[in-house]
Write a structure and sequence with these properties.
Layout: E1 3-9, E2 14-20, E3 25-29, H1 36-48, E4 52-57, H2 69-76, E5 80-82, H3 93-99, E6 113-114, E7 120-123, E8 126-132, E9 141-145, E10 150-154, E11 157-158, E12 161-162, H4 172-183, E13 191-194, E14 200-201, H5 202-208
Amino acid sequence: MTTVKLFTVNHFSENTYLLHDDTGEAVVIDCGCYRPEEEQKFSNYIKQHKLILKHNLCTHLHLDHTFGNGFVYRTYGLRPETHRSETEGAPTPAEQSRLFHLPEKTEDIIAYKYIAEGESIRFGESELTTILVPGHSPGGLVFYDKENGYLFSGDTLFAGSIGRSDLWGGNEAGLIATIKSKLLSLPDNTIVYPGHGPATSVIAEKKGNPYLK
C-alpha cells in the first residue's frame, strides 16, 4: 500500500506529495518547498519514517512546483525528472521569479533528467506510470498509480476546474481534449491529487466539472 503525505507549501499554496510504501522507498512529486521551515518539515518526515528518497518528479516546471528542486538535489542528490518539452524555450527560474517579484533561488538551476510518456517510475514495491497531458504547459505530465487508483495531476486537473492555459506553451483546447481522452478514461473511482486545492475523483470531475462538459 502506498502512503500519500501532503505538504502544502510556498506563496501559492502548492501541493507537494511524498509517496512511500512499506519498503521505506519514496518519491516526491512537485517539491515546492520555498521557506526553510518547509524544507525542515519535509526532511523531518523522511527522517522520522526512515525513508529513502528515490525520485524527484516534476509534473511541469512552473516555479511554484519547482522551488524545492535545489533543496532536494543538495540534500538527497536527486535531479528533477520531467518531460523534455518542458525545458524547450521555457523561461528560466530567474525570469519566472521576477514575474512574481520573488527572490531567485539560483541553486535550483540544475540539469534535468528526462522521462517519457508511458515510462514506469518504480520505488520499493510501488509503480507510477507517466501520462503526457500538454495544455497547461508544453510537456505536462501526470503520474498514475494503477494499483492504488491514484492520479497525481499537477496543474492539469483540479476539483471543479482545470489548469490555466495563458502561460508559456499553454493550449486550452488541447488541454481539455487530452484530459477527456486520457484522464477521464481512467476508472471512475480513481482519486485525483492535484497541484493545488483538495483531492477529487474521476467520477466527480466527469459529473461536475464545468470545463469538461
